[in-house]
Write a structure and sequence with these properties.
- This protein is of the alpha/beta class.
- It has one domain: Rossmann fold (3-Layer(aba) Sandwich).
- About 30% of the residues lie in helices and about 15% in strands.
- It has five helices and five strands.
- It has a five-stranded mixed beta sheet.
- β2, α2 and β3 form a beta-alpha-beta unit.
- The longest helix is centred in the middle third of the chain and has 10 residues.
- The protein is globular, with a radius of gyration of 14 Å.
């Protein structure tokens, strides 16, 4: 959703990240930047269609994002996390990794997998 200048000023810099849903043929990916739950809720409230096959997990798997409602709305079959191994923030947070796994959304991380390449047919 588009926000007014006043609305943007009240958001953390993380919640001002660009969120982009890309569609190629029959496959979609939602790129979420560093958004946190406040931005997730704003997106849900906008009514935007965010259903996507692949989700770039918000904010590197931080505890401040990946709310259950957001994940239910996206309904991805795969989550991708861009994160360094042994990072000082502890990303992805165990609570968030468990949330994805409990919702049957497998995750791949750059810490474990290195470069993650996607091919679309």
């Amino acid at each position: 959703p588009t926000l007014s200048q006043g609305e943007r000023e009240n958001l953390s810099s993380n919640n001002q990240s660009i969120v982009l849903r890309a569609l190629y043929k029959n496959t979609s990916i939602l790129l979420t930047g560093d958004i946190e739950e406040d931005a997730e809720q704003a997106i849900l409230a906008s009514g935007a269609d965010i259903r996507s096959d692949i989700l770039k997990v918000p904010h590197h798997g931080s505890r401040t994002s990946s709310s259950t409602g957001f994940l239910l709305a996206v309904d991805p079959y795969l989550g991708l996390i861009s994160v360094g191994s042994d990072n000082r923030y502890g990303h992805p947070h165990t609570e968030i990794s468990d949330r994805y796994l409990n919702m049957d959304i497998p995750i791949k991380t750059t810490a474990s997998n290195g470069v993650i390449s996607l091919e679309f047919d």
